[in-house]
Amino acid sequence: MTLLFEEKWDRTIAPSDRKMFQTVYEQNPIQEGRLEFVPVRAAFNHQGCVLASVCILNGRDDWRLQDRLLCYKEDGDVLAEGRFTHNLLVPSQTAVPWTFIFQPNSFIRPPSLHTWGISLKNNHK
Question: What is the extent of the structural domain holding 106?
Answer without folding.
Answer: 2-120
